[in-house]
Design goal:
heterodimer, A: about 350 residues, alpha/beta, Rossmann fold, eight-stranded mixed beta sheet, four-stranded antiparallel beta sheet, 12 helices, 12 strands, B: about 350 residues, 14 strands, globular
């Protein structure tokens, strides 16, 4: 059994809306529940995919795990000593940030225009006051090599505008690596890149995990891509976990009604392949305040009275570590499971919500 | 007869460092009721072609060669050379455009209804009441609540805005709709709904369509034929079930190899190393020479032209000497894997 690197328990992150004086004085402060009670474990040395549509809370979750944002509630236990990341302050937090690094989406905005590659990759060592000049140079070289920017001498003196998008993203990876982190969050690191470049950046990340014992959280809305890189995938919807399990199981045999429709909506590149769409009405909306019961119930073709209560994550039998946040998978529930009767247009109409 | 015939089209951008040859000698046709996809990576010239068709290139862009013939029922107009007056009549009325970012394409200070009514009234002599009525019908067609007619763009979600944009593009029942990355900014479920609707509406109105995208799965699901662009040139063109199943150009194969799929056997992603050619100084020989695992000495000397491939009616063409000589590129997939210098496994 793999060792657990991180335990996330009951993570919540609420962002205030209408932060004006009057609403504060009248106590009418309202909150967007970006992440609402999420729990999962991350194993050491795995690539864990966090997927879902925009606004589902995947990025906010990752920001909390790396403490770029402070969680509203919940615990995040990390490493062998089970420190609670959610409660770290000052020096301890600084120390954690050395071990946990983030790679952002946009390689064109995340790099300082006036820094050379050398200066940019070296900066974290300066900030954390690690090593003398020689040691720092060595680390920078090593990190650039690991990120696949070779021959290093050819790139190290360049400015961002002298690099292609793929090369910039490798510089971002090198900057994350220079501190020898044990945990990296990559937030859509390839979504701005062309397909032919994308695969090479993925290869670099995959090699890191295999050879450097790094644990990686990979955030993306692109399920096809996650299939190639992740060991396990968590699907989020409206700030809650819908489904979690081994990549192949979640993508080939999705259980949650939301995952089923999400997977069915992915276009296929092979013109010979057909697919059956499981259409759901409506769109993800930003919801202020919490949602009573299942967050997917308003769009779900299988909605019934139990959906007004919060579903727990039910564990599926079998070897795929699959967990599903839907009442229909309660072993005591005797209704038919989603997908057993294909949802057709009539079903969605019955859900009482029109396509907007 | 085809609706649109593009012949030998070349487009340049003037820059301080000299001209950039964004599009070079591109020729293809779009038939009546046909959906044609143009795919390629950033900078390959696909969006420049769309802008060239409507002549909405930025001030430093210029059509330097070729023709863009639009064959209407009563006349043929060369969009590349026609006068501005004719062009204004044709834009929106005969050729309309769905832009990638509806937020930027729609005016934030007018309601979406006002904008569509205005577009209708510029081209047709109708009362505001009639035009509004038609707008409401259009909204229903694209799956948008007609009550939304008085909403401002910022009051709509991304998917709704894109639907409003589609309603606007359909308002005058154009012969040709240009869609530049119509769903790229959308989530997968919304993208799916919108692609399905675009398909249905195109059938219903009998329009032709040009879809420009980097996403080959979008093309595979919506288009009849596809053109693959690389470094400003068209390298392969043909029916999707030929081009995407038995590619005849190594770059097409490279794109397919690098594209992840959600279904089927889990194979490795294979990447092409290197980068596209410098468009300010394009190579004498084949554009793809530097990155091609099949390259031969002749490929560096002469730029291969598009030549017909075997589907019987000259519909399928590729610009590659190696596959022209009968080498099956798809069958030598394993050979490409051995050539690790150029093609790398994930």
């Amino acid at each position: 059994m793999a060792e657990t690197l991180m335990e996330v328990r009951g993570l919540k992150k609420y962002y205030p809306v209408d932060t004006g004086l009057i609403s504060r004085l009248t106590g009418g402060q309202r909150f967007v529940h970006a992440v609402d009670d999420v729990s999962f474990d991350i194993e050491r040395g795995e690539i864990f995919g966090l997927a879902g549509e925009s606004g589902c809370g995947k990025t906010t979750t990752a920001r909390c795990l790396t403490r770029l944002d402070d969680p509203t509630a919940g615990d995040i236990y990390f490493g062998e000593d089970r420190r609670n990341i959610a409660e770290l302050e000052r020096d301890e937090l600084r120390d954690y940030r050395r071990q946990a690094q983030v790679i952002f989406q946009d390689p064109f905005e995340s790099m300082n225009d006036r820094f050379t590659v050398r200066k940019w990759v070296r900066e974290p060592l300066v900030i954390h006051d690690i090593g003398d000049d020689d040691e720092r140079d060595n680390r920078v070289y090593e990190a650039l090599e690991q990120a696949g920017l070779t021959p290093v001498d050819q790139y190290i003196g360049r400015y961002p505008h002298e690099l292609s998008g793929g090369q910039r993203q490798r510089v971002a990876i090198a900057r994350a690596l220079v501190l020898n982190p044990s945990f990296i969050v990559a937030d859509e690191p390839t979504s701005m890149l062309d397909v032919s470049v994308r695969a090479s950046v993925l290869r670099v990340l995959k090699r890191l995990v295999e050879e450097e014992n790094v644990t990686l959280i990979y955030i993306s809305h692109d399920l096809s891509l996650l299939r190639y890189i992740c060991d396990r995938i968590a699907i989020m919807y409206q700030g809650e976990l819908a489904e979690l399990g081994d990549s192949e199981a979640v993508l080939q045999e999705p259980k949650h009604p939301y995952t089923q429709s999400l997977v069915s909506a992915v276009p296929r590149a092979d013109p010979r392949e057909g697919r059956t769409r499981i259409r759901i009405p409506g769109e993800v909306e930003e919801r202020i305040g919490g949602i009573e019961g299942c967050s997917f119930k308003d769009r779900c073709p299988y909605r019934y009275e139990r959906c007004d209560q919060d579903p727990e994550m039910y564990e599926m039998e079998g070897e795929y570590n699959q967990m599903v946040g839907c009442h229909l998978y309660d072993p005591d529930e005797d209704r038919p499971l989603p997908g057993e009767e294909a949802a057709d247009a009539d079903d969605t109409a019955d859900a009482g919500v029109g396509v907007s | 007869m085809s609706l649109l015939d593009i012949n030998d089209l070349s487009i340049q951008y003037r820059t301080q460092e000299g001209p950039i040859n964004a599009v070079r000698n591109v020729s293809f046709s779009i038939g009546e009721n046909e959906t044609f996809g143009l795919v390629g990576e950033s900078g390959c010239g696909k969006s420049t072609i769309a802008k060239g068709i409507l002549r909405i290139l930025p001030p430093n862009g210029e059509i330097t060669n070729g023709s863009v013939d639009l064959n209407l029922s009563n006349r043929t107009v060369d969009l590349a050379t026609t006068d501005m007056k004719t062009l204004r009549e044709i834009r929106w009325d005969e050729v309309s455009m769905i832009a990638q970012s509806a937020m930027n394409a729609l005016d934030p200070v007018y309601t979406i209804g006002e904008q569509i009514v205005e577009a209708i009234q510029i081209h047709e002599d109708t009362s505001t009441k009639e035009a509004r009525e038609r707008t409401r019908e259009l909204f229903e067609m694209v799956g948008l609540d007609p009550e939304r007619i008085d909403s401002y763009p910022h009051q709509l979600s991304g998917g709704m805005r894109q639907r409003a944009m589609i309603a606007m593009a359909l308002a005058l029942e154009p012969s040709l709709i240009l869609a530049d990355e119509p769903t790229t900014a959308l989530d997968v479920i919304t993208q799916d709904h919108i692609l399905e609707e675009i398909n249905e509406l195109k059938e219903r109105l009998g329009s032709s369509m040009l879809i420009i995208t980097h996403d080959i799965s979008v093309v595979a699901e919506t288009c009849d034929r596809v053109g693959v662009m690389y470094g400003g040139e068209l390298v392969e063109v043909g029916p999707i079930e030929e081009v995407f199943v038995n590619p005849e150009h190594p770059y097409t194969l490279g794109l397919l190899n690098a594209f992840p799929t959600i279904e089927g056997e889990e194979r490795e992603l294979i990447t092409m190393s290197g980068s596209p050619p410098d468009l300010s100084d394009p190579p004498t020989g084949c554009n793809f020479y530097d990155r091609c695992p099949y390259r031969e000495p002749r490929c560096a000397e002469t730029d291969p032209a598009l030549s017909t491939r075997d589907d019987g009616d000259g519909n399928w063409k590729a610009a590659c000497f190696v596959s022209e000589d009968g080498e099956d590129i798809e069958a030598t997939y394993e050979r490409t894997l051995e050539n690790q210098e150029l093609w790398q496994r994930l």
